[in-house]
């Protein structure tokens, strides 16, 4: 298979930097989750239009968002998960929306639903061919996430599997055969291009890309479709907050957070397939 086992982020912009700065001006720096990034990209356009303040935006994952906010490299970190107890002692956070982790396959795969136990069998490597689940005679291609991505942490928590890149332990592992990538877009691109592929990504991003023509589909998980209603009432099993984290509520940070929670900001959240907090 003419694919590398790891895909550098620059191939699809997982660490893409969007700079709306002008030379000599200090910028509001925002970095982190590739799930939250599309929301913030649209908010940045409104923010600069309203305030005239420059913004520098980068991806890199939720881990990078926390790290950069803690170090002061970024005034705001984007984090698509709950904060850990030790993070809460040093960072403040504002939840701007809700998301779910969607299980995706190529559109040509006849499978339309999956259970947690089947997901574990697939990702552990115990199932290597889709025939075992009533599908075509096709090898399973697992697409997973790199350490530092909140989508990986959610997937690990739900399945009880751990990335093979974690420190040694007795916890069952995700198969070494899995392709390890960074951003949601990378995962969606691979699954859309490989008939036997399976992956896990933000449900908002998955629906948006499927509607744009990418040949992927979201599976029903344990009998529940990741609809807004199922996410809001807790029936869907893998739900997460979309957070903006920061150390100090400077005037620029406070203004950006106010925009994100405003009716206009929440319309942006909803337009990208996420659940707003003003519902």
TrEMBL record:
Keyword check for Signal: yes
Residues covered by the PBP domain: 22-263
Annotated source species: Allochromatium humboldtianum
Protein name (database record): Phosphate ABC transporter substrate-binding protein
Domain of life according to the entry: Bacteria
Entry annotated with the keyword Signal: yes
UniProt keyword annotations, A-Z: Signal
Gene3D superfamilies referenced in this protein's UniProt entry, alphabetically: Periplasmic binding protein-like II
């Amino acid at each position: 298979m003419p694919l590398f086992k790891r895909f550098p982020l620059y191939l699809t912009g997982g660490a893409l930097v969007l700079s709306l700065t002008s030379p000599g001006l200090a910028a509001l720096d925002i970095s982190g989750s590739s799930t939250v990034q599309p929301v913030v990209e649209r908010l940045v356009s409104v923010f600069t239009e309203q305030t005239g303040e420059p913004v520098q935006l980068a991806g890199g994952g939720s881990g990078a968002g926390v790290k950069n906010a803690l170090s002061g490299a970024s005034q705001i970190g984007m984090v698509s998960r709950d904060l850990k107890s030790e993070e809460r002692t040093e960072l403040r956070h504002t939840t701007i929306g809700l998301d779910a982790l969607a299980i995706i396959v190529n559109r040509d795969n006849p499978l339309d639903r999956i259970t947690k136990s089947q997901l574990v069998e697939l990702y552990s490597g115990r199932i290597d061919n889709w025939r075992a689940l009533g599908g075509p005679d096709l090898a399973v291609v697992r697409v997973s996430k790199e350490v530092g991505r909140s989508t990986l942490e959610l997937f690990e928590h739900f399945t009880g599997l751990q990335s093979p890149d974690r420190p040694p332990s007795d916890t069952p592992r995700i198969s070494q055969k899995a392709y390890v990538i960074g951003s949601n877009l990378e995962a969606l691109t691979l699954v859309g291009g490989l008939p036997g592929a399976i992956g896990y990504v933000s449900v908002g991003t998955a629906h948006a890309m499927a509607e744009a023509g990418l040949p992927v589909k979201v599976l029903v998980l344990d009998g529940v479709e990741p609809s807004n209603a199922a996410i809001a009432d807790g029936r869907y099993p893998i739900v997460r907050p979309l957070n903006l984290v920061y150390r100090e509520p400077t005037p620029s940070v406070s203004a950006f957070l106010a925009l994100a929670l405003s009716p206009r900001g929440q319309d942006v959240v909803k337009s990208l397939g996420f659940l707003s907090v003003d519902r």
